[in-house]
Specification:
Blueprint (H helix, E strand, L loop, with lengths): L2 E11 L2 E6 L10 E2 L2 E3 L6 H13 L2 E7 L3 E4 L4 E13 L9 E5 L14 H9 L1
Parallel strand pairs: 1-7
Antiparallel strand pairs: 1-2, 1-4, 2-3, 2-8, 5-7, 6-7
The chain binds 8-OXO-2'-deoxyguanosine-5'-triphosphate.
Length: 128
């Protein structure tokens, strides 16, 4: 099965981190994730994450660091999730696709019901 490359961003707003909840009508309904999305053909990872964040959240970010990608097989599809840490730069946060968001302290993130692919990424991030 082909592997779909997906970027996501762990966005810092000061000492809080943004997590977003998928809506009931999306794949992986109501799971929590880091905002992002599929890389388009010919697009760089960095261009992808900046574009997705603006499309989904109406904000601009500064990308800081690439963490270790995680490959995950869901029942019907397989993704390579490529995570970046980032900082909020500007814009008014508006949810264009997700059902809700949380600005959480790092130690609170583990309590959310995450999409499975995010778990190794979260673990690496929490260890830093
Ligand atoms: N953006 C993002 N997607 C994630 C994360 N974890 C995770 O399993 N995914 C999955 C959910 C989706 O199947 C895929 C990302 O695709 P997307 O957000 O561009 O697409 P989508 O749900 O609208 O799916 P589709 O209808 O276009 O197929 O990766 C994450 O932390 N961030």
């Amino acid at each position: 099965m082909k592997i779909i490359p997906v970027t996501c961003a762990i966005i810092h707003f000061g000492d809080k981190i943004l997590a977003v909840q998928r809506s009931e009508t999306m794949k992986l309904p109501l799971k929590w994730e880091f905002a992002g999305g599929k890389i388009e053909s010919g697009e760089s990872e960095i261009a992808c994450i900046k574009r997705e964040i603006f499309e989904e959240l109406n904000i601009h970010i500064e990308v800081k660091k690439r963490l270790t990608p995680a490959t995950h097989q869901y029942p019907n599809f397989k993704i390579e999730l490529i995570p970046f840490t980032a900082e909020f730069v500007s814009g008014e946060l508006k949810l264009r696709e997700h059902s809700s968001f949380i600005l959480a302290k790092k130690e609170e993130l583990i309590n959310l019901d995450w999409a499975e692919a995010d778990l190794p990424i979260l673990k690496e991030y929490l260890a830093t």
